[in-house]
Amino acid sequence: MWPLVLLWGCLLLPGYAAVVGPKEISGFEGDTVSLQCTYKEELRTRQKYWCRESGLILSRCSGTVYAREDGEETTEGRVSIRDSPQTLTLHVTLRKLTLKDAGKYFCGVSKLGLDESFLVSLLVFPGNKCLCFPGWGTGDRERKRDRWATDQCWTPLSPRQQA
């Protein structure tokens, strides 16, 4: 019985933890988020990619962006990807997040048979991370608007700046 269980485990999890990364990342609409997935040494020369999970029963990829083999950054739309074989790391950046970007994505490595991949959940929060409070601002432009900033993040004015 035990040999059957071991065989089943080997078939089901052939490259367990061959690719790892953050389980979840998050940002606000308009933000840029970055993440890194690491992979095992034996995957160093394989093609790396980032894609959105699609499919209801079987997981598939859509919108796949492939890393260049020379280590240079590849950009497609708002997604940039770069493989760093020296550090066994895949770098991914998503720019100008929208609510529609929320979902599940794969850091993946192509190989014969089933690819090695890691599932990452992206959460996107509505609005922006800035709050408007009287007496807050970053400079003269905000002070001229009765100390209400509306188009960027800011820090509280010091008492000297408020005078």
TrEMBL record:
Cited PANTHER family: CMRF35-LIKE MOLECULE 9, POLYMERIC-IMMUNOGLOBULIN RECEPTOR
Stretches assigned to the Ig-like domain: 14-121
Keyword set includes Transmembrane: yes
Single GO term (MF): transmembrane signaling receptor activity
Main location (coarse class): membrane
UniProt name for this protein: Ig-like domain-containing protein
Keyword annotations from UniProtKB, A to Z: Disulfide bond, Membrane, Signal, Transmembrane
Organism field: Ursus americanus
Localization annotation: Membrane
Pfam hit, one: V-set
One GO term describing the cellular component: plasma membrane
Lineage of producing organism: Eukaryota, Metazoa, Chordata, Craniata, Vertebrata
Signal sequence segment: 1-17
